[in-house]
Amino acid sequence: TLGSRRRGQTTTIRITHPTGILPNPAASTQPRRVTSDFQPLYLIPYLGRLALDRLKVSDIAVMFEQIEEFNDTIVERRTSPDPSVRASVKYRRPISIATMHSIRATLRHALNMAIRQDRLLDFNPAAVLKLPAKTRPKALVWTDDRVQDWQAAFQERLKAETRRRGGRRVDPVDAYTSTPRPSRVMVWTPAHTRLFLEEAQRHRLFALYRLIALRGLRRGEACGLRWKEVNLEAQTITINWQLVQLAGQVHEGTPKTDASVRTIALDTETTATLRAHWQRQLQERLALGEAWTDTGFVFIQPEGSRLHPQNVTEQFLWLAYLAGLPPIRLHDLRHGAASLMLAAGVEMKVVQETLGHTSSAFTADTYTSVFPEVANGGRGEDRSAPTRRGGEPAEASRGGSRCGSDPPHQQPAR
User: Fold this and answer.
1) Which residues pair with 208 in a beta bridge?
2) C-alpha–C-alpha distance, residues 412 and 397, integer Å
3) Does the pLDDT at position 395 exceed 70?
4) CA separation (Å) from 207 to 90, 172, 298, 392?
5) Of 347, 359, 210, 358, which is closest to residue 274 (Cα–Cα)?
6) Contact, 14 vs 120, CB < 8 A?
7) Which family is annotated (predicted)?
């Protein structure tokens, strides 16, 4: 038994769990399936060879140092002139400080269980280790002055990269995403968002980007949305699942918090966009026949399989570049949605519930410093739904024949 072998036991005896899931209230903001993946991806490879009663604070510190070194490797490979090197980290993201805190919380909980239940060690080294504080960078709006300064820096970076590569072609999107910004969190003005949606109308995932831009879905929530959770008649969608990316692999899990499980009201134009998306998906399904993969997801690959969230991000960056816009992260499109709602006079409580925040205090703390600039940036503008360049109506708003009924809706249990 665990209690009869106290000396020399390897750390994996307590990091692993018979069910593959380690209960961890301290990291409960992560989907449980994702939290359990901290064990095989980080804890076992770095600490699994060590005896439990000899585990030291320095051993855990070395694990995080190695994670940070791998973060540096990812960043370095992303900027490599060799396409194969860049491709090797396409689906890898640097581990954030917040994720490191969750990894430490998972380990601390496991070791606390070993102390309290089986007395396998005398103290908890994970509780002693200090990590950098989880700080939220201040969100800034892309004002005209900031855009002008960034564009100058972007052009200089393109020239420098061209010289460094001896005149060979430079991928402009690489320079676009790597040029420093005033803050890690940047927010578009209403005019910027409109330009992006005009560009995105040409893309088969336009409805996905519109949902994020106007209703503030998280990337994983949009990728994990199923047709049975879409009610076009009632003009609502229900968020019950998300697709998340961990170490390059896609996992399906529950939303980030209990508050993230929510029903979101849609405007008429977004409802029409989703209906047009359903029609197009039916056409793709009929064209492929038996080769079609029926996953039930709203947003899918052309053959029906689920999306990889990283590909959604890369396509977003490409569309933003084509639209001539300053860069933001895809998650910042969600921030922009919140700021637009607040600037339009939507009550803070409604914004909080739409975004899936646990409290309106968090929503207010995050966005009240941003939305005045957003409101000023959009003053005097027409905030109606965007149209194609040249005034052509968006596809979602056009009438005409329909190739099928609305998608099957099933109200999920809340």
Assistant:
1) none
2) 28
3) no
4) 24, 26, 9, 18
5) 210
6) yes
7) Belongs to the 'phage' integrase family.
- Residues 69 and 96: their CA atoms lie apart, in Å, by 13
Of 52, 71, 137, 61, whose CA–CA distance to 103 is shortest?
61
pLDDT tens-digit profile of 99-138? 899 889 988 888 888 888 777 778 889 998 888 887 777 8
Residues with Cβ < 8 Å from 82, sequence gap 6 or more? none
**pTM over cut 0.90:** no
Distance (Å, rounded) from C-alpha 67 to C-alpha 20?
23
The rounded distance, in Å, linking the Cα atoms of 300 and 298 is: 6
Q: Is the pLDDT of residue 24 over 60?
A: no
- Both tokens assigned to 223: 């990728």
Distances (CA, A) of 301 to 37, 295, 330, 332, 350: 26, 10, 19, 24, 33
Confidence band of 371 (pLDDT split at 50, 70, 90): low
Q: What is the 3-state secondary structure (H, E, C) of 7-53?
A: CCCECHHHHCCCCCCCCCHHHCCCCHHHHHCHHHHHHHHHHCCCEHH
26-30, 94-98, 253-257, 264-268: range with lowest mean pLDDT: 26-30
Kindly list the structural domains of the chain, giving each domain's residue range(s) and its CATH number in brackets, ordered by start. 2-128 (1.10.150), 140-397 (1.10.443.10)
Look-up of token digits 């909980």: 109
Q: Is 223 helix (H, G, I), strand (E, B) or coil?
A: helix
E-only strand ranges, 103-220? 140-141, 186-187
Rounded to the nearest 5°, which phi and psi values hold at 7? -105, 135
At 270 the pLDDT is: 96
Identify the DSSP state of 123: S
- The answer to whether the CB of 234 falls within 8 A of the CB of 363 is no
Mean pLDDT is lowest, of 25-34, 159-168, 296-305, 401-410, for: 25-34
Structure tokens at 344: 């339009």
Residues whose CB is less than 8 angstroms from the CB of residue 413 and which lie 6 or more positions away in sequence, other chains included: none
As given in the structure block, the two tokens for residue 268 are: 């008429």
Tokens of 409: 């809706």
